[in-house]
Structures are given as structure tokens and as C-alpha cells.
Amino acid sequence: MINKHISVVFVSCVALLISFNACKSKRKLKKENQEAVVVDTITDRCKLDFKNAKALTKYIKENELTYNWMYAKANVESNIDGKEESFDIKVRIRKDSAMLVSIQYLLGIEVAKVLITRDSVKMVIYPKKEYFRGDFNYINELLHADLDFDLLQAVLFGNSAAFHDDDDKLKPVTDRQNCRYLLSTERKHRLKKIEHGLGPKKSMQVMTLDPATFKIHKNEFIDVETNRTFTAYYEKYPAVTDSIYAPRLVNIDIVAQKKVHLKIDYVRMEKNVPQKISINIPPKYEPIKTKKP
Description:
By secondary structure, the protein is an alpha+beta fold.
């Protein structure tokens, strides 16, 4: 069984990894912003034009962060079932292939590395001289979650992750009260009931979009059968002229077998510079003994 300290690091790493060539021109984006933020002074509601699911899907894809390689450094605060931890991370990603996360505590002391590919997970814990080799099946059993590489890759930087490609099953909502567009896999009237505290009858995903940029403000997954939720909030976007138009602050809440909150504060981002993505397991390190929950 993983001991308490290792368990916190392990679950933090896994939960954390749960992630503009095609974007519009600056002039067009500015024009859309002017149109989007118009407010009716009588009703105090935004004058947002209705957009169907096909249009919203198109705008989301056009404005996602695109890259081949990504390097990011962040300060992270985690709270897992009431236990708080603070650490720094360095993330190196080769798009659609692999990601390497280095975890450091104070004074730059490296305590762990996690290498995730599309079908495997490796982790080295340096203070304990231990390592872990496994796959997403074990991780999902540990967290009672349903993670995969594409979801982890997208959540880190505010991209859309996987959602229904069938526009007929995507439901748009124009939220003029909060100046947002919503795109969900639930019908509009069901979404309004959910907002008033009545839970959905089936699993669903809801993306809340900024009407000026069509970047994701909130991405929520609800699994009714297992009573699990995964919600990511994205804040502190830089100026639209920034070459890496991605949120600098990400808050993640996971409610499953464990309750997890992660605050990811990016302090540096660099894209399309090739990175070394590998992990070395020293020969004298012992495998972490795991037990299915």
C-alpha cells in the first residue's frame, strides 16, 4: 500500500495532469469583443447574439491554444481530503504524445517526476528511492475517475478536451445575465434546472465560454452514475496579442472517492521549443507496492 506521504504526491500529480495558428486576427477579435460586451442599460443584460452548436464548436476549435511542444512552470497549491500541500512544477509536453512533470518543494529540491504517455504512467519518488509503473486503468481505479491522455493534455491549458462531435447532441445556451455562452450535452431546459440545484439524469459536460474570445471560462464534467464531478476554472488570460494566449491561473475541483482542489499559478510558458521528455529509474530503486482501492 502506498504510504500517506507518497499517496498525497501521487494523487496530486495525477489529478493535476487531468489540459495561435488558427485564431482570428487581432482586428476581428477586437470587433467581436466590442459587440459581445454591449449591455442593455434597462435590463442590465448582455446583448449576445444567439449562436448554434455548430458555430460555437467552430469558434472553440479556432481559438484553442495550438502548439507542438510546450514548457510551463507553475506554483501549485493542493488540498486533498483536507490535507494541504504546496509545491512547484515544471511541465514539458509533446502534443498528443507525452508529458513530463517535475515536482519540487521549497529550495528547489526535486522530489518526483511523472511521465505520462497515451497508454502508460511512470513515476519516480526520489526521497524514498521508489518508482511506479502503471497505466490509466490503475489511476482511474485509484481516483474513481475516468481520465485519459487527451483530457489531461487539454485541461492544463484551457482547451476543450473531448466532447460530442455530433452537433445534434450539443445544446447551446445564451446566458445574457452573466455574459457567457454555454455549450452542453444536456438540453437547454435541463441545464436551467441543473443551475437551480436539480441534478442531471445522465452524464454531461458543460463548457462556459467568454463571448469575446470563445475561450473556456469553466469546463465541467458530471458523471451521474458514479456521483463524480470534475470542474476546471480558467482565469488571468493575458492580452490577446500574447503569443501564448492561455490562462495563467487554473483552479480544478474533483469530487470523487477523494475531494481534490488544485490551484495552478503559471509563472512561465514557452511553446514550440523541443523538450527532453524522458524519465530515468535508477537500478537500486524499489517498486512502489500498490494495492487496488
